[in-house]
Amino acid sequence: MSPMNPRLLRPTASGATHPEARDWATRVTANGGTVSSTTLAAVSKFCAAINAAGLRDRFYRLNLLCGTSDASLNAVRTPLYVATSFGGATVGDATDTNVNFVQGDYAETGASGGLKGNASTKRLNTGVTFSSAPVATISLSAYAADMETTGALNTNNVLLGSLNPNSGFQGASLSAWWNFGSPNGRRFDAIGASGSAAPLQSSSLPSGAFVSASNTSGTTFAIFQNGLEEASATASIGTATGNTAGQILVFCRNSSGTATSTFGFTAARIRAYHIGLTLTAAQHLSLYNAIHAFQTALGRQV
Amino acid sequence: VTLGDLALPISYEDSRQYALVLTPQMANRLAELHAEYGRPDCLAVPREMMDGRLMLGADLLTAIEPGGWLHEMWEAADKAVLNASVEVMPWADAVALLPPDPVEA
Question: What's phi and psi for A134, nearest 5 deg?
Fold first, then answer.
């Protein structure tokens, strides 16, 4: 009997790929996009890292903003996670809706990798509202380069969020830059009908970083950069009854509860974002480690 | 300067120097074209400026070529009307006419 060919014992490429990564690639293809084997392998490693860290159920939605560039940005608009479990009920829209982006705004890899905002008109609409992602337990993040680090009074450059100025700014948002008077800087807002866990501001302002913020436990909220906590506050904020229908936008914030009312655009080059549930400080660090490793695999780490 | 003065096709780099400025009537026509020929997941949505007109980035003109997500809408549009009615303005000038953010506490 001849010895078995070692290649038969090796897992196939398909078998080695994480099932959620395979599912994402299938959805990209169905949406008209394509995924390289290199990217699929990186996404698969990311999925494995998220599962190993016990984070999978923390995400309503997570988009690594990757996939081969195409004219309609079909790949980059297909989120990896759209539910808190694989195959669970979709939160928000199945894909991100493109508003005003063109193919030239996106590169998958390298220093210009990511989707580039223009601080004026371009955004993605996730379709996620605070009805399905309550502000009292929310988490938000963005891995981005070219973030604003300065700006005149009354300027706001939002990475993602929705705040309704007609109801005391109820909602949540994560800003690269916020300046409506001192102190100004990088900022997280989580505002409900009962109170506000704001302002949570970070004094360090790298142009490229993984910015994340959340409810961390109970009524405590905190903002992090590259997985490290920079500020925290405690408040019982309740629900955002004054902003239940405002869809969370990326590259700006929804304002007044309709998807077409927008303010606070950013010119950042965003390389990943998530909308999720309560994350502890340790989980913020684990998420940073997983996302940073993914970005490094695509040569676009900050 | 109007859209008719721009040489098309235009490169991404060149197009980013300009904004397309629309009257409310032209913006309504854009919405009608989108409803009939556009994609539900790719939208050209202008922002209203302080003078009542609306603006879009001219880089959207890179999406009107075959295969681009605006191609069908572009093909269905009345080019003579578009070329004469859509004003082309330097990008920075148009951005300066956008309204300020609502003041936050």
Answer: -60, 140
Locate the chain B residue with the closest alpha carbon to A199. Answer: B105
Q: What is the model's pLDDT at position A4?
A: 44
- At residue B1 the predicted structure's pLDDT band, cuts being 50, 70 and 90, is very high
Q: Residue A98 in contact with residue A31, Cβ under 8 Å?
A: no
- Flag whether pLDDT at A152 surpasses 50: yes
Chain B hits for A122, CB-CB cut-off 8 Å, are 57
Looking at the partner chain, which of B43, B59, B101 has a beta carbon nearest the beta carbon of A102?
B59
Across A266-292, average pLDDT? 98
Tell me the pTM: 0.94
CB contact under 8 A, A102 and B44: no
Across A23-46, average pLDDT: 98
> Which residues does residue A96 pair with via DSSP β-bridges, in sequence order?
none
Q: Tell me the shortest Cα–Cα distance from A68 to chain B, in angstroms.
A: 15
Q: How many CB atoms lie within 10 A of CB A275?
A: 27
List Cβ neighbours of B19 (8 Å cut-off, separation of 6 or more): B55, B56, B57, B58, B88, B89, B90, B91, B93, B94, B95
Q: How far apart are CA A102 and CA A100, in angstroms?
A: 7
Contact B45 A99 (CB under 8 A): yes
- From chain B, the residues in CB contact with A73 under 8 A are 42, 69
Instruction: Please say whether the beta carbons of A33 and A26 come within 8 A.
Output: no
